[in-house]
Amino acid sequence: MEPRSLILDMDVGVDDSLAMLYLAGRPGVRITAVGSVHGNVEASLAAQNGRRVLELCGLDDVPVAVGCWRPMAQELATAGWVHGDDGLGNTNQPDPRRGPTREHAVAQLIRLAHERPGEYDVVATGPLTNLGTALVMDRDLPRLIRSVTLMGGSFDGVGNAAPFGEANIWHDPEAAELVFNAGWPVTMVGLDVTMETRLEEPELEAIAAADTPQARFATAILQHYLGVYARSFGGRRICPLHDPLAAGVAVEPSLVMSSADVEVHVARAEGPTRGMTMVDRRPKYMEAEGRSGPFTRVALRVDSRRFVDQLVGVLTHPLPAPAAAA
Ligand code: BDR
Ligand code: CA
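That is the input. Now the predicted structure with calcium ion docked in place:
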């Protein structure tokens, strides 16, 4: 079977790194290119971190392009307190061997989409500024991209960065509104499912005991993140798997056990709800009342056990030889 070719768009912090490691280790997956974006850290640092993770996996040839440095309509805000100032839990990782490409991440996305129409699946695990900007620049993009799977938002409107704002959406609500409503197939993997899909003590012990480069790296970068999440989990050093789960759903849609196809909009008015995902939950028969889509597939229940086992498997076993570039 032809491998799935992915374009990753990430604000490479701790869980984005785990998502990359997961994808590098799954069969039938080819990471074609990575774009960085502001969010957990600045976009230039996110690109460096992307290179670090790819090089750890032997994926030196995968290009990493620096993307948008700030959101469309608000100030830049980073999240060093969650991911460490370096985005990797303040672990002082060695510099990557190669730098980023000269191309901008938005240009890279548009170019690849035109070179191979309908072939690329996009996995977006950061603020959606690159995707939103690409949509503003190129009206053809939605029909050229096979699918977009994003980590962001929540079905029930609960947030994490703000009371109603999940971080990736809250960091750029205008871009997110464009992405949800561009007419390309979007799957939203939100807090409803990512908060319930976790690394807990047994998995963390298995990873810490494994003698693979990716397990050692994961154990190191997770320490700071586990300390942050301990405040949400009654002192237990466990963590949700936001971005890795989105990566899992992108390459293995059967991980989703139930979903809803719904209109998603993003609250953009100034005030406490800015950045909230608003889901039209009216039953189907209300469609006559003007519900027309585009619809987003929102994951409501996932096979967390199967996914966590897959992730632990990737981290604790040797990585496969990289699939040929395309
Ligand atoms: C999202 O925000 C970031 O901190 C994580 O990397 C993830 O993409 C979770 O809300
Ligand atoms: Ca992220």
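The chain has a mean pLDDT of 95.
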